[in-house]
Write a structure and sequence with these properties.
Number of domains: 1
Radius of gyration: 18 Å
Distance between the termini: 25 Å
Largest sheet: none
Strand content: under 5%
Structural class: mainly alpha
Helix content: over 70%
Shape: elongated
Order of helices and strands: HHHHHH
Length: about 160
């Protein structure tokens, strides 16, 4: 009987502490996106200043940052959805495991979004400096790993899942 009460008490405490997973995705995405954005600004300036804003017909560092952070939030929320609605849910309680998931997720984003979607989209909008297809730039991989790693670290803390 005591075990049943303790389990029930622990579960109700957990419900109180947990936030909706999407909030962890938003904040984790912003944190990872901010660090990746700083890296882009310092090491791959033309990407954040020209290529990212060109996706939406815009120009300049400010537009690049805004679009980059919006994308970071979207990718963060998708991460939260994938973790909570698939068999990956068991990994959200461990910061270490969540970080590994984030690194894998960052790699997938690099392959799909940076490697294929962005070059095709830039070609479609007539950007003059379209990267090759596929665009597997190692510096871009580093940025996406940083994004995913930070997302994976922040997500369980903000969502109230960390042990």
């Amino acid at each position: 009987m005591a075990t049943e009460y303790e389990t029930s008490e622990r579960q109700s405490e957990e419900r109180v502490k947990r936030r909706p997973a999407w909030i962890g995705g938003v904040i984790g995405g912003l944190a990872g996106g901010a660090v990746m954005g700083l890296m882009l600004s310092m090491m791959m300036t033309p990407v954040i200043q020209q290529a990212i804003p060109a996706l939406w017909g815009l120009e300049g560092m400010g537009a690049g940052w805004v679009i980059h952070l919006i994308n970071s939030v979207i990718f963060g929320v998708i991460f939260a959805m994938l973790v909570t609605r698939t068999g990956l849910r068991r990994y959200e309680r461990s910061v270490g495991r969540s970080t590994v998931l984030g690194l894998v997720y960052g790699t997938v984003i690099w392959i799909v979004a940076a490697g294929f979607v962005m070059p095709i989209w830039l070609q479609a909008v007539g950007f003059p400096m379209v990267p090759p297809l596929p665009n597997f730039d190692p510096m871009s991989l580093v940025g996406h790993l940083v994004f995913g790693g930070i997302l994976g670290i922040v997500y369980p803390y903000v969502s109230g899942f960390s042990e």
